[in-house]
Specification:
By secondary structure, the protein is mostly helical. The chain folds into 2 domains: 76 residues; 226 residues, Fido-like domain (Fic-like fold). The protein contains 13 helices and 3 strands; from the N terminus they run βββααααααααααααα. The chain has a 3-stranded antiparallel beta sheet. Helix 7 runs parallel beside helix 11 and helix 10 crosses helix 13.
């Protein structure tokens, strides 16, 4: 395995191309090339030409390291406004993504951008539905969308679950409708088409098995949604966009306005809010489902007295988790 190794000398970072080989029960590492201290001068094409055999299986990881760290260095030079929810390091990581998204991704060829977004939509659909129990994997979903091949031995509702999710986020990306009660209900209806006939806001009480929180009483659902929408609109220009998005996502899930499909609706809405701030979307990986639910549960303590509470300490775990998903999914999905 080949990777970029970083070492700091007198406060300055230096890079080497290092290979790691297992020899019996030991792992032996060796630096095969000094890369200097300027990431902008390190070209992966040159490394591939010279060390094709060594980096063949590690190409994507090396490229991800070079690109992400190059933009991290750029972000470090900026004077970023302090934030009570994110550390300086986290803010720099967010800013690095924004720089890349605006200066690199936005300038790509239209077809290249479409391919990347289509791949994102596919991955988002698989992960978001999988969090709710869908068993269709990425490979099967790819064949479904690209070749119209139905997955074997899967329920039709799972197929519609994926199709609806992809259609919904594509609709939001294209139409860019105003965020209000009507849109939230429409997103839900689109996601549950051919799956569940219980469309519209629920008019009955619910208890979520295994979840300790109490959703909003049915008679207060629209009132509570209006409350967080008003809060959202008042804080659009005051709060960091990712902070505002995470807080809104949690508050929405706490209300749990529908009989089913609240998580899928909330995650689609979360990415649409990010898009409204010209931020790239994110994927909450199905691999971290338990961490996601745990961090949402931990944040419930912030809302015991008020739905619009923004208690910093009680939201720390959720902020950290979704920040990590934002960073990971971006560099995984939007590099070329």
């Amino acid at each position: 395995m080949a990777y970029i190794h970083t070492k700091t000398i007198n406060g300055k970072k230096y890079y080497t191309l290092r290979i790691s080989v297992r020899n019996n029960n030991k792992v032996v590492t060796k630096d095969i090339c000094n890369l200097g201290n300027d990431l902008s001068k390190i070209k992966i094409e040159d490394l591939e030409n010279k060390y094709k055999k060594e980096i063949r299986n590690s190409y994507s990881n090396i490229k991800k390291f070079l690109d992400s760290n190059y933009y991290l260095e750029k972000a470090k030079k900026l004077k970023l406004k302090k934030n009570e929810y994110f550390s300086s390091k986290q803010l720099i990581e967010i800013e690095a993504i924004l720089i890349h998204f605006k200066k690199k991704f936005s300038k790509l060829n239209k077809l290249t951008k479409k391919e990347l977004l289509d791949n994102f939509f596919l991955n988002f659909a698989v992960n978001s539905t999988s969090i709710e129990g869908n068993t269709i994997g990425l490979e099967e979903a790819g064949k479904l969308f690209r070749e119209n091949i139905l997955p074997k031995n899967k329920e039709l509702r799972e197929v519609y679950d994926l199709i609806n999710t992809k259609k919904t986020i594509e609709f939001l990306e294209k139409e860019k409708p105003k965020i209000n009660l009507i849109l939230i209900s429409k997103i839900h209806d689109m996601l549950l088409e051919n799956i569940d006939s219980r469309k519209g806001y629920r008019n009955h009480e619910i208890k979520i098995f295994g979840q300790p929180f109490k959703p909003s009483p049915a008679r207060y659902i629209k009132t509570d949604l209006k409350l967080i929408l008003d809060w959202f609109n008042k804080n659009k220009k005051k709060m960091h966009p990712l902070v505002l998005t995470i807080l809104f996502h949690h508050k929405f899930e706490k209300i749990h306005p529908f009989s089913d499909g609240n998580g899928r609706t909330g995650r689609a809405l979360m990415n649409y809010i990010l898009s409204s701030f010209n931020y790239p979307p994110l994927i909450i990986s199905r691999r971290f489902r338990e961490e996601y639910l745990d961090s949402m549960d931990a944040a419930d303590n912030a809302l015991k007295k008020s739905l619009i509470s923004v208690d910093t300490k009680k939201y720390k775990k959720l902020m950290s988790f979704i920040h990590s998903q934002f960073i990971f999914s971006y560099w995984d999905m939007f590099l070329v």
